[in-house]
Here is the input.
Amino acid sequence: MSGATPVLLAWSGGKDSSLALAKLSKDPSVCVRALVTAVTVGYDRISIHGVRRDLLERQAAAIGLPLIVAPLEPNAPNAAYEQAWAAALAEGTARFDGAKHVAYGDLFLEEVRAYRETQLRTLGYTPLYPIWGEDTAALAREFIKEGFRAVLTCVDTTQLDGKFAGRAFDEALLKEVPASVDPCGERGEFHTFVWAGPHMRETVSLVEGERVLRDERFQYCDFLAA
Here is the structure.
């Protein structure tokens, strides 16, 4: 889009990233040029979310945006993450019209926002938060109403029963999760992968795989391409 500010979108493959992309897509002053995702090498999965890289790549292709990967070693310290993320952003800047704005799907965690802003300020980037401060219960319902479809790929069992891993993110789930759990999982209660929605030209067909508990805390449900 001529004259629009080029933006790199921090992309987890989940619903908040998708909602951020939807919001940005309606803003004529900006243009999302690429998705930037941290991927854990060895496992070859989206960091924290545990989604296979091939599903991530299919998702990006369905959305129609280039994907830039920030490779991380397992259990990488913050310094290593920051180095990998800086390199990924630099790649995005070089490839996409000198993009110096980075958007996030964060909602309300002030400490997370402060951490990102400190890092970006050092690197010379400007952060954007298109869905910051929105009511998370309303946002979760909007996600479903607008036709997005997602599954829970990881559950923090200290905050939510592990049986929810693998479940569809739908109205039934929202009615079942305890009141202590944020409807969007913003405190890390759960993570999602979006396989269909208005932002995608085609669906990413999934089949449920094995369930694995890691660190005696995180219940993962593996998904494979159907």
Q: What stands out?
A: The chain has a mean pLDDT of 96. The helical segments are 15-25, 53-63, 78-95, 110-123, 136-145, 171-176. Residues 78-95 form the longest helix (18 residues). Strands lie at 5-10, 30-40, 45-46, 67-72, 101-103, 126-128, 149-156, 190-196, 206-214, 218-225.
